[in-house]
Amino acid sequence: MANFNIYMCGVGGQGIGVLSEVMIQACLAAGHPVKGVDTHGLAQRGGIVSSHLRLGANVHTPRVTAGEADLVIALERLEAFRALVNVARTGGTVVFYDTEFQPIHVRMGKAEYPSLAELEQAAKKRQLRLERVSADALPDPRMQNTAVLGRLAGLNVIPGVTGAHLEQALTQVIKPAQLEANLAVFNAQAQPTAAGESN
Amino acid sequence: MSNFAEMIIKPQPWTGLMMGNHALVRAMLESGVRVATTYPGSPTPEIADALMAIPAEVRPLYFEYSTNEKVALEVAFGASINGHLSTVFFKSVGLNVALDSAMQLSMMETIGGMVVVLGDDPGANSSQNEQDNRHIARMSYLPMFEPGTPDEAYRMFKAAAALSQRINMPVFLRLTTHVCHAREVIQFGTVPTDEPNWLPAYDPANGPYWPITQSIYPLKRRAFAKLAAVAKEVETSPLNEILAPNGSEPVNGKRLGVITSGIPAFAMLECLDQIDAGVDVLKLGITYPLPERRLLDFINAHDEVLIVEELDRVLEGEIKALAFDHKVTAAIRMRTETEQLMRELTPDRLWDLLSQTWPDAFPARAARPAAEEDVAPRLPQMCPGCGHRSAFHAIRDLLADEFPNAITVADIGCHSLGAMEPYEMGTVLMCMGHSNGTGAGLAINNDTRPVISFIGDSTFYHAGLPAIINASLHNHNLTLVVLENYTTAMTGHQPTAGNGEMGDKILIPAVLEALGVKFVRSVDAYRQDELKQHLREAIAHPGFAVVIAKHPCMLKFLRDKQRRLANKKEADVGANK
Ligand SMILES: Cc1ncc(C[n+]2csc(CCOP(=O)(O)OP(=O)(O)O)c2C)c(N)n1
């Protein structure tokens, strides 16, 4: 297999850590050699948080080079836009949860928050597949990452990683007390006809 | 006990996915480390997190968060001269704080062994500079190991500990941010289960431990002798290895070689995967002292050798000098531009260096065109509910209305973010604890512009006290605002001397009073009007004044609450089974 690069991002506090843990465990279970690296450091909420995951026997360093992500997973629209423009490779896939965390520059009127149409246009220009996830009535906004994982389970974009691998990894990572609710969100998105739309 | 804790202390060998920082803790346990100390700072706090995850009853070593890096290093040193294998870990700039003690280490017989773990931060991911601590190995005459992956960090810690125990000399293990935080599958070995021997073995006869004036020379001589012995050993060390097959086909009639270390060595492999031409790679795992014979043999087997290093010209200078002394005919190539001395050496940046050096082997690539789209920036911010934020809000308003020409001095911590919009409070920043000293300098013979310095509570104890004593003694006319949030917030909520998590609280007002500070006020940072009034009076006070603006870190507060609720829920689920 050629190397496969996954870049995950969102806003501090959105649960990128859990997302990246589930992803790396699923990829390991699928038999891939993995290398990854997460941002750690600034504790505050509100900054950009990212996680890199690279699969393949010929991967030597853990970070995804700009313009070389085969798959971008974003938990917020502006961060999806940023990664789409800077990190995704032409022809790759971007899966994102469509929620809005406005940064201060937007709130002060010094910058624009991107519209969905802008994302679509930027994706088209780069021949990217753009998958928008949005679920009404999540039991907890912290399950947006689980919804995105559910959608991934139905997409089969990562070579060799099936929905079952993702579900198994989710079961391993999520605390027992929250597992049932998370699995429900995961499964609702995993069905091709589920509540979320795709673009 | 958590699953993680069970695995990390499990005596039998196992294989699993691990972050570099966590793998180090396994290496500590396998090596038999008895004392570990730190002061938090990225990229190293997760080492402490992993140690703290092991319940104290089963943790086979003593661990503490020390007041600052210097104290942490001294505690580890004291343990080592008492016969216990010790380790101290902190971030790049932490070594500046610890340096006064670190400079004596090579003269000391550290009979228990001691590993000094540095978290350098090329790319300034979470630091105020990019300092390259490889210089300090040279300056302090101590060997240095440089892993490039979590697996190497694990293996090299063990090798460093073993070497240190063998030569009774501390050894540096220099990590960089993306070694600390990278994750990969690692094969772990066995943790010895023998009872720790806490017998205090200190004996001045092992030293002398008393370097002063003329007595330093025998000690310094001994340090050089130890280094010379290590230099011999590293000639054959498997940690210095040829990564790509030596003796590759020449490119355009030239035999090309690269000498490198750390993460750049792996970036080199990424670049080599993309070409057919052969380039030999000598990777140094031990970068001080250098294996001179080995380097010369490698260089002499090639027509051109490029030195691939990150940040300062450390290897470049030393290898060039070596080549000069030995009248090497191969061309030693190196970086040519200042920009190349900054930031991380990622595979794409390395490719550019390679193609600049050897365009035939590494064809130049067009630069990635900048995106046409405008993407709004997202800067880190103080959290909703943060007390610092409330304090800055009030202080900004007060200064704008009544003291528009005031000078505000920032310190390091979450509150450094006060310098950004919309507050723009604290516009001079250097390092932890500088604010009060810098503020005093700004206040000298200055009757027209009030000076306000900020400092966090962890920093107050870490490096704040000497400048407070100074300002109190000389009655410098400035106002210090202590932003007390009862935690070391920025680096991930480590305990402070004042929050009671490590021992009896050492309270800031009591400390200030004991230091002779005449004007001390304390107020919840949410009470903005009161805070303003205190500040107004503090500024009017002729001389040194301190206002403590306190409010618990809300991020920590909410996380602790969530954790308590989750634990309760878990317990309830368990009870219902
Ligand atoms: C010498 C040194 N050690 C460690 C650090 C890492 N560091 C950055 S901010 C900070 C602590 C800040 O804690 P505090 O002073 O309580 O301020 P808070 O973040 O809680 O507002 C630390 C330890 C550093 N920058 N310099």
Describe this structure in words.
The complex is a heterodimer of chains A (199) and B (577). Chain A is α/β, with parallel strands linked by helices. Chain A has helices spanning 16-29, 77-86, 104-107, 116-125, 144-155, 163-173, 176-190; strands at residues 4-11, 34-38, 48-55, 69-74, 88-97, 129-133. Chain A has a single domain, classed as Pyruvate-ferredoxin Oxidoreductase, domain 3. Chain A has a six-stranded mixed β-sheet, sandwiched between helices. Chain A is globular and about 45 Å long. Mean pLDDT of chain A is 92; it is low at 193-199. Chain B has 19 helices and 19 strands. Chain B has three domains: 3-235, Rossmann fold, CATH 3.40.50.970; 241-357, Rossmann fold; 387-558, Thiamin diphosphate (ThDP)-binding fold, Pyr/PP domains (Rossmann fold, 3-Layer(aba) Sandwich), CATH 3.40.50. Helices cover 39% and strands 16% of the residues of chain B. Chain B has a seven-stranded mixed β-sheet, sandwiched between helices. Chain B has a five-stranded mixed β-sheet with strand order 9-11-10-13-14, with helices on both faces. Chain B has a five-stranded parallel β-sheet with strand order 15-16-17-19-18, with helices on both faces. By secondary structure, chain B is of the alpha/beta class. The model of chain B has no long low-confidence stretch (mean pLDDT 96). Chains A and B meet through helix 1, strand 2, helix 2 and helix 3 of A and strand 8, helix 10 and helix 19 of B. Bound molecules: thiamine diphosphate. Residues 39-41, 69, 91, 93-94, 97, 412-415, 432, 456-459, 483, 485, 487-491 of chain B line the site of thiamine diphosphate. Thiamine diphosphate binds at residues 39-41, 69, 91, 93-94, 97, 412-415, 432, 456-459, 483, 485, 487-491 of chain B.
